[in-house]
């Protein structure tokens, strides 16, 4: 996968994704999230398989409730998580997760599995599942927008 080679460093990835968002936002003004494209979507099946993989590969560090990990993983739910990631976007979240998680074997899971994990995380943050599956592809994900963050 090209993006893993290009964005081998998660920090560089976030900076780059953040920079790209900054440009789009400057053009769109306040309505960036509304105009950025189609709202993100994923299916209940993706959430369910994402949850199964989460329990296997992520829960020890990030916790059963995604904010109560025992081994130093930061919260993956809540206002501050969304405040950090929603402006970066779903492609950025997918890219970071796929290139950096789990820390002992980053990128070891399939793209589809990472998409399922992101679907599960977004679902836990209050976005409802629908009929259209989430693509496991950076370019397609970059077309999708996330809702406004709410407390
Ligand atoms: C060994 C413990 C560990 C495991 C297992 C683990 N993580 Fe993490 N995770 C971390 C740590 C530590 C960070 C913070 C790293 C950083 O900011 O560079 C992190 C950061 C994250 C972030 C970004 C959170 C933020 O606030 O920026 C996401 C999303 C994430 N992990 C998802 C996952 C997923 C999905 C899995 C399972 C495939 C997983 N993690 C497995 C320890 C872990």
UniProtKB/TrEMBL annotation:
Signal peptide residues on this chain, from the entry's feature table: 1-26
Record PROSITE patterns: CYTC
Molecular function as annotated in GO: electron transfer activity; heme binding; metal ion binding
Keyword Oxidoreductase among UniProt keywords: no
Annotated ranges, domain Cytochrome c: 45-125
Keyword Repeat: no
Keywords: Heme, Iron, Metal-binding, Signal
Pfam families named in the record: Cytochrome_CBB3
Name assigned to this protein: Cytochrome C oxidase, cbb3-type, subunit III
Source species of the chain: Pelagibacterium luteolum
Organism ancestry: Bacteria, Pseudomonadati, Pseudomonadota, Alphaproteobacteria, Hyphomicrobiales
């Amino acid at each position: 996968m090209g993006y893993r080679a290009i964005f081998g460093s998660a920090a560089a990835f976030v900076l780059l994704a953040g920079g790209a968002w900054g440009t789009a936002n400057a053009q769109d003004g306040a309505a960036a999230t509304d105009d950025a494209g189609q709202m993100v979507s994923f299916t209940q099946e993706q959430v369910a398989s994402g949850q199964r993989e989460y329990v296997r590969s992520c829960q020890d560090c990030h916790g059963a409730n995604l904010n109560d990990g025992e081994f130093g993983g930061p919260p993956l739910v809540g206002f501050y998580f969304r405040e950090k990631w929603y402006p970066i976007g779903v492609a950025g979240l997918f890219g970071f997760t796929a290139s950096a998680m789990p820390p002992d074997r980053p990128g070891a899971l399939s793209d589809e599995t990472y998409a399922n994990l992101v679907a599960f995380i977004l679902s836990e943050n209050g976005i409802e599942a629908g009929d259209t599956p989430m693509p496991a592809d950076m370019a397609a994900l970059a077309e999708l927008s996330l809702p406004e963050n709410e407390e």
